[in-house]
Amino acid sequence: MNVVCLDLEGVLVPEIWIAFAEASGIPELKRTTRDEPDYDKLMKWRLSVLREHGLGIREIQETIAKIEPLTGAKEFLDELRSLTQVIIVSDTFTQFAAPLMKKLGMPTIFCNSLVIAENGEITDFKMRVENSKYTTVKALQSMGFDTIAAGDSYNDLGMIRASKAGFLFRSTEQIKADFPQFPAYESFDDLLEAIKKVL
């Protein structure tokens, strides 16, 4: 039995941190896993920037409330879910993802969680497991599933590499050049056709 594992940000919805960087006027927060392969390092740096500017969960959630799925993302997900099981495997956080899941028709998501103080300050983050995307596909495989994975960033490469089929979707020119062995697609129709061929 197949299960498709999809990244969230940059694949189905815009990058939350980029949207918040624009809303808050803090351009350095545009740095994402497309730029920084070390997620732990990236998140610690993000939290330090938030502290420095006195920003917390409320301000980020106000931005997230205005984010809509990428054009065609819900239709792509609806069709894919009519064909096979789909899990969104993301390094985002439940406190960020919940409103976006409603807009995508409530797909299953495996993600992480934030530690939030009473005043709304984000004090820390808790990863579900180490190397969460790779660990997730290996766990699914250990239960008898064949995984198919797609994502756009450095932190997606583990699950793409470990799956029976893996695809880059709307990735950077650098990642596509560094990993030419993975087919790269720019449209949901093309990605859907590629997945259908390996189901």
Task: Name some characteristics of this structure.
thrh gene product, domain 2; 199 residues; 2 domains; Rossmann fold; alpha/beta; 9 helices; 7 strands; seven-stranded mixed sheet; globular; 44% helix; single chain
What does this structure look like?
This protein has helices at residues 16-24, 39-53, 57-64, 73-83, 94-103, 132-142, 157-162, 173-178, 188-198, and strands spanning 2-6, 85-93, 108-116, 122-126, 146-151, 165-169, 184-185. The protein is an alpha/beta fold. It has 2 domains: 2-12 and 69-113 and 126-198, Rossmann fold (3-Layer(aba) Sandwich); 17-64, Alpha-Beta Complex (thrh gene product, domain 2), CATH 3.90.1470.10. It has a 7-stranded mixed sheet with strand order 4-3-2-1-5-6-7, with helices on both faces. Helix 5 links the parallel strand 2 (85-93) and strand 3 (108-116). Helix 1 crosses helix 3, helix 3 packs parallel to helix 5 (94-103) and helix 4 (73-83) runs parallel beside helix 9 (188-198). The longest helix has 15 residues, at 39-53. The protein is globular and about 50 Å long. The model has no long low-confidence stretch (mean pLDDT 97).
